[in-house]
Design a protein that fits this description.
- By secondary structure, this protein is α+β, with helices and mostly antiparallel strands.
- Helix content is 53%, strand content 20%.
- Helix 4 crosses helix 5 (137-151).
- The protein is elongated, with a radius of gyration of 27 Å.
Length: 192
């Protein structure tokens, strides 16, 4: 069938309709992206944190250490490790709420003693680590010794006095050393 009235193109109308549709679709996609992104960010953040001590977990600490090694290629990265003697046994005998109060208190004390860009992680039941970017080994050792003095106190937790006995060590990461090997070396030298 041949049209009786010829079809004439209307570019202004076609452009305005396509622009309006593109704008509506773009706004819908942006809104949907934000709705999906927020829960994913929350899940990612939750997976990075130690739920009891309110600091980074071992997996994220190792990841950050590897990433820091790549970013801070020409600057030293030092890690201080603090192991609390007897804390594992103590935590086994405390109720969950008091365990969380004690570990959160330790994390809070550590945060008060380090710089804002230093990363605090929990490496095990009774071991914490502090990653210090751009800090040479001797400065990291001084920092970790100062922290040891501040943590060698008794903490009041839920009407009980808990005596902390920290053992500390600090070291700078060597060239070519993996994050896990580095942390293992520091842990093996604790108390020496």
């Amino acid at each position: 069938v041949v049209p009786v009235i010829p079809v004439s193109p209307k570019p202004v109308r076609d452009i305005s309709v396509s622009a309006a549709l593109s704008l509506v679709v773009g706004i819908c996609l942006a809104f949907l992206f934000e709705q999906i992104k927020m829960p994913l960010d929350e899940i990612r953040k939750r997976n990075q944190m130690d739920k009891v001590a309110n600091c980074y977990n071992t997996k994220y600490f190792l990841y950050t250490l590897d990433q820091g090694k790549l970013i801070e290629e020409n600057h030293p990265i030092s890690v201080g490790m603090i192991e609390f003697t007897g804390l594992t046994t103590l935590l086994e005998n405390l109720p969950q709420t008091i365990q969380q109060q004690l570990l959160t208190r330790i994390t809070h004390l550590l945060r008060n003693e380090v710089r804002g860009n230093d990363v605090i992680g929990r490496m095990g039941t009774s071991t914490f680590s502090i990653m210090m970017f751009g800090t040479p080994e001797f400065a990291a050792q001084k920092t970790i010794d100062r922290i040891k003095n501040h943590l060698s106190i008794s903490l009041p937790v839920d009407e009980e006095q808990i005596q902390l006995m920290p053992i500390v060590n600090a070291a700078a990461m060597l060239d070519g050393e993996t994050a896990s090997d580095f942390l293992e070396r520091i842990h093996n030298d604790l108390g020496k």
